[in-house]
Design brief:
mainly alpha; 77% helix; globular
Length: 299
Amino acid sequence: MSRSYKAFAAALGANLIFGSSYTAVKYITPQYIHPFALNFVRVAVTLVLFWILFILKPGKVKFERKDLPRFAVCALTGIVINQLFFIKGVSLTTVIHSSLLSLGSPIFITIIAAFLLKEKFTLLKGLGLACGIGGATVLVLMKDSSGAVASNMVLGDILVLINAISYAFYLVLVRPLMAKYSGIQVLRWIFTIGAFGILPIGFPYMLEASWSSFELSHWLVLAYVAVFATFVAYLLTVKSIALIGSSATGAFIYTQPVFAAVFAMIFAGEYFTIYKLVAAVLIFTGVYLVNKKPTVTSA
């Protein structure tokens, strides 16, 4: 298989897994396991797998203590806030809502980079931000009539938005680390540091979980979320970044809501409505505009 096909398969596979994880999370939370307990399982399992991988294949670049503050901030934004707010948000809202709102990350990345990295903020990016905010507002304020299960849609949508903003901060802040260390090294340390925030919060809910009520399907979905939707998906993303770069890999995030919607319609009984279509068009337009390169005219 050629280099480009490997990258394509890795990026598409990662987003297929991420897209399916929305429905998987809804299947077991909050009825069978509290979202924070699910966070505990995800991070604990992924942490163990990353350190097993380290034993089998140690990194070539040694960890430098001067990078610890940046690793800590990346762990806070990319693991602690991201994981806690994402799972909790998805458990409260619908799959299609949460997947579309998560697509706001590329928009927030551009805005955050403009302030933190002093990247140029153009009129197109401003219009893109306006479209993205407009689409998110439509989703948050409009009432869902598709029959989807959502115990508190507004709160869930807001939590998913906070998750998207936090993850955008992470993706901007992690760039220098990705340039210095391998992707797997960065993820291993970020998950290790992030575990100090996730595990203490999730442990009490682990004790309260009604494990005896779990059927085989629930155990399988739990394993899928912990292993595939976290560890494997992250590895595939890192593999794609190593082959074709972060920008090209990031473009595949546009497929994630499509996969999420397909799984939601098949397994969760959700379906698209007019307002969801309007919101999707606005958000996709926003993502396109903030990433559009200005045309250079020759003199």
